[in-house]
Amino acid sequence: MTQLSVLVFVLAAVLLAMACVKADRVRAWRESLSPSAPDVPDAAFVVARLVLVTTAVVGIVVSVRGLAAEDNAEWSDDELTSAVEQAVTALDGTTKLGDLYSSASTVDQENARMIEDEVVEHGGGDAPQLGVDAYPADGNTAPDSSYTVKGDGAGAAFCVHVRRTRSKEDDWHPPGITGGEGTTVVPAYAYAVTSRKGAC
Q1: What residue spans of the chain are helical by DSSP H?
Q2: Model's pTM, two decimal places?
Q3: What distance in Å separates the CA atoms of residue 116 and residue 93, rounded to the nearest whole number?
Q4: What gap in Å lies between CA 51 and CA 57, rounded to an integer?
């Protein structure tokens, strides 16, 4: 997208340069190529200049919008750094309900999605609303896992470490069929989340 925008800027500059060429110079050049050709009226030069300038302006506007759209679709290192820091602060110390029998791979997927959503949510400003990936590290377990967080367009990467422990005092006991507290227990987990620069 950037290369296309630069090309359009160059073409717009060429069109503006063409619009600035004097009519006498064009007439002299045309006469040197074809002496018998009829003379071009001044009105034709006015129309040609209007067309060239209008086309150049439209090209510049489209290129500027394209660059703005590209900027909004990619993460900068500063945007990703700020978003990860805020996401880690928001997640650290939280408690979430889960599944007592979930596997390490299921927890990995849940944690990765949780981190990605939180980073995007804290992107703010001109940061994109997507394009964040959290890659699980090898050897992750349900209680202890790490994720390399990257954003599209950003050169920076962060290692987010998640420690997940049972928090029985926060368990949820849904009501039974006949009312009152049921026998089912939905387990709660407490999260300790930290991060550092660089891949895991």
Answers
A1: 2-19, 23-33, 42-73, 77-91, 104-121
A2: 0.63
A3: 18
A4: 10
